[in-house]
Amino acid sequence: MKTIDIFWDGPGGSGKTFLYSTLLSFIRGKEDIALPFATTGIAATLLKGGRTVHSGFKLPVPVLDTPLSSMRPTSPEADKLRQAVLISIDEITMLTKDGLHC
């Protein structure tokens, strides 16, 4: 399956979360899997079904220099990530490079 990475940037109040919510609704309306994540709990609550990146990807807290996710490749969570049509991460600029590599 072809993947596309898209980065949306804009000042607060410019509609980024609205855009995420619209995309999530559209994809879910087609019975596909869309998984919203955010770097903070507050941002995650603004998205239907939103979770923190640490929770969704089983990242350690804090993320160390040699980060490893505790998610097993054969787990139901890993399977759901593989099946997702959209994985969005709101406030991704708040995620450290180690967290992104994890």
Automatic annotation (TrEMBL):
Keywords carried by this UniProt record: ATP-binding, DNA damage, DNA recombination, DNA repair, Helicase, Hydrolase, Nucleotide-binding
Family annotation (InterPro entries): DNA_helicase_pif1-like_DEAD, P-loop_NTPase
User: A single Pfam family, by name?
Assistant: PIF1
Q: What class of enzyme is it?
A: isomerase
Q: What EC number(s) does the entry state?
A: 5.6.2.3
Reaction catalyzed: ATP + H2O = ADP + phosphate + H(+)
Q: Where is the DNA helicase Pif1-like DEAD-box helicase domain?
A: 5-98
Per its UniProt record, the required cofactor names are: Mg(2+)
Regarding protein family, the annotation reads: Belongs to the helicase family.
Name of this protein: ATP-dependent DNA helicase
**Species whose genome carries this gene:** Araneus ventricosus (Orbweaver spider)
* Lineage, uppermost ranks: Eukaryota, Metazoa, Ecdysozoa, Arthropoda, Chelicerata
